[in-house]
Amino acid sequence: MSQYYLAREAQYQPGDKRVCREGTREGLLFGIELWAQDRNGPPICWLTGPHRSGKSTIARTIAEKMTKNGSLGASFFCTGRFSFKAPSDTFVIVPTLAFQLAQNYSKFRSSLKVQPAYPSLEAQVNNMIVRPLKESAISTLIIIDALDACEDEERMVSLLGRLASEAPKVKFFITSRPEPGIRSSLDGWKVPVFYLDCES
């Protein structure tokens, strides 16, 4: 996958100290963990709040917890700055998520057939994410932090909706500011929403 845009710096790194201090945000974290563990619950969970309210800290803390129990499949923190220029953030997010899923799940890796190039972004999404997830039928959690920082956020939400429909064993925890476009794109999914007001 070396020919694709892989943003390793955007992945959660075990041992990252930028997590919630012990004894803080306990109720919020517990609620998100309950959602993540409920196999029959909604496939998408949204944490929203204003700038610098602590969303990324929560996302890293959830990533830490899910890594420890083996249920984190992939993560992408959109607030990172990449060492390369890509056509759009989606061209970075898709292969970076696929790379992590292939590392973590042999069934996904076996289903992933990477081509030198795809004719469109939709073809890349279908071949690198949708089809391997459907064929491998893995149960996992994917975290996307700061979705509003993505250049084509509504397109990404549309992609998440498609994945939620076609790969029902996969759950998506996303964070963003309360952007109307993201909110409207999530309508109809019965998405549990957690709100943050300020850092505590």
UniProtKB/TrEMBL annotation:
Keywords: Repeat
Domain called Nephrocystin 3-like N-terminal: residue spans: 33-177
InterPro entries: NPHP3-like_N, P-loop_NTPase
Family annotation (Pfam families): NPHP3_N
Keyword Cell membrane attached: no
Name of the protein in its database record: Nephrocystin 3-like N-terminal domain-containing protein
Provenance organism: Thelephora terrestris
Organism lineage string: Eukaryota, Fungi, Dikarya, Basidiomycota, Agaricomycotina
